[in-house]
Each structure stands twice: as structure tokens, then as C-alpha cells.
Amino acid sequence: MDPQETAEVAEATLNFSKLSSVSEGKPAIPGYTLAEKLGEGTFGAAYRSVQERTGQSVAVKVLTRMSSRFREEVDRLSQVSDHPHIVTLVDADLDHAPPYFVTPLLSGSLADRIPSTPGEADISQVCVWFRELATALEYIHGRGILHCDLKPANILIGEKGFVRLTDFGQAALQDHTEARLGSFWYMPLEQAEGGLPQVRWDIFALGATIYALLTGRPPRATEQGRESLRSCTTMSDKLDEYRRLVRDGSLAPVKELNPGVDSELACIVEHCLDTENGYSNAAEVLADLERREKKLPLAARPFSYRYHLERFISRHKLSVLVGLVAVTVLLTGLGISSYEVYQARQDRNQLIQQHYERALSLLEDGRTIGLVWLAYAYQLEQREEFRQALLDNLACYQQVAQPFLYALRTSTAPSPSGHWAIWREPGDFNNRKRIDLRTGEIDELSPSILATDRDQKDKVRYRLDGIELDPLEGTGGPATWRMRSTDSLQPGEKSSGLAILVRPDKVWRVLRAEDGVDVLDKDGRLVSAIRREGQVAAQPTFSREGDLALSWEDESVEWYRKDGTKLRDDTFYGDLFGFSRDGRYLAASDGISNLRIWDEQGEVLADFPLSAPANEIVFGPDGELVVCATRDGLVHGFLTTEGKPAWPPIQLEKAARWIFVQENGQIVTMSDIVTVWKAPEPLDRSLRDPEALSREVARRTGWIYDDRNAQVRTLSRDEYLERFRYTPAQ
Known about the structure:
Strand content: 15-25%
Number of strands: 36
Oligomer: single chain
Helix content: 25-40%
């Protein structure tokens, strides 16, 4: 679509949010009494309404002109409305005349919270909204959806102060080939120029929204610029003028407009607004917000010794103060001159710059790269203290299972057992192989693996394990999915459930219902109806045995056992669930930084701290190990019944989306690449050569210190295989 045509559609979308008191010509919607009109656009109108059955106030959006966008909006919203920070789809009927959909009626938006002056900004509350919106974006992006029109007016505020992202009228799929225009001051230049939708647009809009909430105005929206835009009479002229203003205008730093904002928060916001070198996804934003909370160095900041030292001191103020007092007393007692004190401080700074304190700080926070900095410190100064610290820590970390299982690019995610994947040599697009992720051996891929249903990748993954999965008939399995994974079962089906269980004896789906969810069998018959008046159920998840866990808006978790009993925890919100293979244990993350595990009686076995919100939770074969991947790129392991970490976290360059625990205990992680990890081998503690120690760190972890760029990074697959030569077994 031409950018000018897109602008016409966008203008209609922007006008939709304008309030109107006009109420004539209200359509008849069964089950709803429509009151005044809330807003109107080219393709639809929204009405304040009452749901007749419950008496609750809702918003009904009705299509007034034929448009595929309306159907797309409902489809996009139906895929993501399960998230606590996305508006809930209460009801919809696209076959009714006119088509309509229903959402809760939320009175306010963040547009009402933009301060008149920067000093009025509630910085702590804005930080809460920042995190909530970033989790919502990560959620929709994980389902292949881009919002494309995030702005304060499209973010509603619920009764409890939670924000909810709404208005998916401009939303696009990530592989969309049409332009999508956003709103002035909240869309980047690339979007205004009619480029193809991309994740960074939503990240920019998120940063622009938070910028406005902190400073009282969107980025680059000077009074002169706003007046210039208002003076344009056509949408085409406005678009041209906006491009000019964004292209030529400079971004006023957040702290310049609001000195009360801390430097770390300002840095995160401004990094969101950098579409070229800024955050590439919402997980990176969340990870830096987490680092800010923990006073860790931000990924958005360029490395400097001084900055990392400042962050270390801010986390350990008391220890540093005591140390400085002790040094001062000692120096005073010895009568050292002020010059010698100054020189001693310089020497201490030099020592700190040689990375030792930095390394210990990183290791304290579970970061594998601390090993690299320890090895580098030992290279600079061969102190026994450095060597012992390196050996003691290195001996505890999970290591790459073997060279050929490092940074593999596979055609699909690994099989459910974590034993197999489909792989091909780089550049050879036709010759697929099957790779054993336990041994690294490769062999020919049976044609039957890819026969029929090749677009249904979950079936292919199960075939790698020798299982022919047919969810419609209930053969194969047991297997479970959450949310839109059911697209792999019926790729064209748009009404798939929130969760699915496939067993030889049953196929169950969870579908959204008012005030809860329904569990249906494969023939559509009701198995059970789960209800909580006025509440929205979230994250329904099946165990392979048939248990069901879910969360409610009031921050409680319910576990429906296959024997009919119901367990409940009113003190925890489950943002992500995982069952042990035998269904004895349930684990959940709270979407922030905590993991809780319950036993089959519903008793809390353990609470574990996480470094960031979780992407994935899986149990080991016997349930005694639970592994959790977090959005900051760490993979945590915990011993279920012992209530302690199993090993220090594995640090990945990109956060894992899939994790598997093999029968032999090896851990398979997958972001865009697959790496297999195993328990550490015995370490030769007689190692003294700095180069040998650095090499051992690289072999075990994949992380190196790159002298050319003065930074820590991971080895590419080619670099790793070159350094640690390996020929795969055929």
C-alpha cells in the first residue's frame, strides 16, 4: 500500500478515539443495551453499553463500513487478549449484521496522565507502566503481531491501576508486506516513510510514550513543530511535514526536560528511541529495566570502567564506605602525605580497572561473563587470588556438551524429548540431516519425517521422536501446548484454544468464556466450566496427565487436578506455568523475578529468585530439577525438593525461547540457535598459564574477551569449531 493511502486509513483510526455525544442510529446488538457513542472512525463506532446478562458496563465496537481491517483487529486481539496488560476480548460476532466485538469499559487512558509540567510526572508509577507495557509488547511480538500504533491514547487504565494495551486496528503480522502508519510523534521516521512493519517501531512507540509521561511532551514535539503540523490542511501535507520535523529535529534529552529522572531510566527511554542502534526487542528493554532495579550496568550503556565501578559501588555502598574509612584511618595513622594518599587511590583505581572487582560483581549476579573478566584480570596480573577465584567459579558452571553441539542453526525447534533436531550444512538448502543432540552424531533424515503436513512443525518435531501425532483423533502424545501453538495443528483455524492437551484417551481444549474458561473435548462437548465472577483467567496450561493450571486477575493461582480436586494459592500471580512430566509438581513465574514450586498437595515447596521475567519453564525427567530461561539471557537451574540452585546460571547472548532437559541431564537451549550443555567436567586445578585458562573459559562457556573491540562476546559457531576442532560422527 502506498504511504499516502495508508495515511488515509490511519487518519480514520486516529479519529476513532475522539469522544462524541452523538447517539442516534444505534445498531441492535443481541445481549447488549447500547448507550452513548464513545468514538467513531471511517470503518467503525464504539458505544458505551451494558451487558444484559450481567449488568456490567462494556464497550461495544461495531463495524459501520465494510473493511477487512475490522476482522483483522478482532483476530489479532483474540490471539493476545489473554495477557493481563492487553484489553480482554469479552465477546465477538463477525457474522452478525453489523459485525461487532466487545471489551471491558475502562474509563481512562495514559493520555490523561501526561503531566502538564515535567515536575508533575510520577516517575515511580511511570516505571511500573513501562514494565507492564514492555511485557505486553514482548507477548504480542512472540505471537508474530506488531501493534504499529502504540501511544498513550491506546493504553487504558484498569481499576487496579494496571495498564491495558488496546486498539489493534493498525496491527500487522511480522511478515506483513503492507505499510502501517502510526500516530504523529509516536512513530519513527521509517514508519512515516512507508516502510514495512518491524518490531523496532513498537519499541520506538513505547519509548515515545514513556518519554511523554516523564517530560510532558512526545519526542521532538516542540511547540513550533506542533503548530507547523497543525497548519497543514491535508493528510498528505501533514505526513510530509512530520517526516521533515523528525528528520531535521533533535531529540531533547529526558534529563534536560525533567532533571528528576535518574540517568539509568533516561538512558533506557532514549535507547528505545534509537531505531538504528537501540533495543531490537522488548525482552532487551525488560532486561535493562531489571538491571536498573538491581543497580547493575545497563546493556544500553557503552562499556566504561568508571560506569561499571559506579554501579558496583551503588550496590555495595556500606562495604565500600567501610573499606574507605579503614584505608583513611590506616593512612592517617602512618602519616602519609596527601600526595601519597592520592597515589594510593590511583593505584586502587588501576587495580579495579584490571577487572577483578567487576568480575566478582558479575559472578555475584549470576553472569557467566564474570569468568571472562577474571581470566582477563589474571592475564594482566598473575595473582594467585585471581587464579583461585577463577578456578573455584569455573568448576561450578555448566559447559558446552561438545563442539559440534554449539550454536547449531536448526530447521525446527528440537523434538519434545530434546534428543533430535533437523540440521543442514550452511549453504546446502536441500540436504537435511537428523542430528542427535545427545551425541552430536548425524544421519540421513527419513522422508517420512517431512511427509505431508510439512507446515505443521509440531507434527514434524514429534515424528523425530518416533511419534505420529494426530490431535484431532487423539493419537500420539501425550502432548500439550499453550496459546496459539495450536496453529500448528490447524494453521488456517482462527478460533483455536488457549491451551490444548492431546492424549490417546482424550483431546481437550481450553477456550475463553465470560468470567473464565471452558474445557471442551475433541467433539466440542463441555468437559468443565471454570468461572470467577468479574475475573479474567490467564495462562491456562495443561500437564501431560490432564491437570490444568491458570491464573486470575486478582493475583491468584488455581490448579485443577485430574482427580477433581482444586488447589489454590491466593498469594501468587502466575505469568507462566510448567508441570513436571508426571504432574507431581507445578512451577510458575510471576512475570517479574520470582519462581514458585508447588507439590501435589498444593503446598509451596520452594520460592526462587529469578534475574528477570521467565520465557520458559521445564522440569527434568524425575521432577527434581526445574530449569527456567529468563528474558535477560540467563538459564537458571534449581533443585525442586532441596530448595537451592542446581548450578550457577548459564548466560546466553540471546534469551532462550525453548529449553529441554534430556534423559541424561544435558540442557538444550534454543534462541535462534541451539546449544547443548552438560555438567562441568573435573577441572585441572594445576593450570597456571593465563592463555590456557582463558582458552578453558572459552571452551566451556563460548564467551571470550575480544581484544580488537575491547568487549566480551560469544564465539560464532565457525570460530568455536576452529578453536576446538571437531569432526561430527556420521
